[in-house]
Amino acid sequence: MPAQRPTTELDARYSSALNPRPGAPEVTATEWAEAERRLEAAEIFWVSTVRPDGRLHVTPCIAAWHDGVLYFSTGRQEQKARNLAHDAHCALTTGANSLTDGFDLVVEGTAEPVGDRALLEEVITAFETKYGPHITSPEGTFHGLGDEFRGGDAVVLAVAPHTAYGFGRDNGVYSHTRWTF
């Protein structure tokens, strides 16, 4: 199910709110609409799952934000699929690698397999729209992904956020926003 509108909170402990820089604008929480815009635009995510023995597993993936839910996929025999079969809790992370500029997002939730065929077609359209020729062109990196989704060769997973975090860096001005659903 799509995520509800969250409560938004600035965590001053981890932002410039407690240690403002001279001349820097007042630090405020990032609105959820901005986070959604960034989730829609992000091309690479890192999915974190937990192995049955408790060790973490982190791997890059592509994902599409559609109707308040983050979707990604995995092969049925891949480590993340085995981990999620044991414990469906996961986190998807995206952002930048700069210390002073950028915005990182963490979405925590429970991965649910998509079984509804109509929803699956919407998700395929979301992936094709977002990644374009990477998926739709015969020369594309992920060409045929929609057919893999339809045929069940890849498991499509939906993560409606339980909690999300945004870590902003604007020329050294830091913000830490928590969204609770």
Could you please describe the fold and organization of this structure?
- This protein is α+β, with helices and mostly antiparallel strands.
- The protein has five helices and nine strands; from the N terminus they run βαββββαββαααββ.
- Strands 1, 2, 3, 4, 5, 6, 7, 8 and 9 form a nine-stranded antiparallel beta sheet that branches.
- The longest helix is centred in the C-terminal third of the chain and has 15 residues, at 117-131.
- It is globular and about 55 Å long.
- The chain starts with 6 loop residues before the first strand and ends with a strand.
- The model has no long low-confidence stretch (mean pLDDT 93).
Task: Write the topology of this structure.
Layout: E1 7-10, H1 32-41, E2 45-50, E3 56-61, E4 63-66, E5 69-75, H2 79-86, E6 89-94, E7 101-113, H3 117-131, H4 133-136, H5 145-151, E8 154-170, E9 173-180
Antiparallel strand pairs: 1-9, 2-3, 2-6, 4-5, 5-8, 6-7, 7-8, 8-9
Helix pairs in contact: 3-5
Q: Helix count?
A: 5
Main β-sheet: number of strands, strand sense, barrel status?
A: 9 strands, antiparallel
Q: SS-based structural class?
A: alpha+beta
Distance between the termini: 12 Å
Mean pLDDT: 93
Our estimate of the beta-strand percent is 35-45%
Order of helices and strands: EHEEEEHEEHHHEE
Q: Mind telling me the C-alpha Rg?
A: 17 Å
**Number of strand segments:** 9
The residue ranges in which pLDDT falls below 50 over 5 or more consecutive positions are none
- Principal-axis shape equals globular
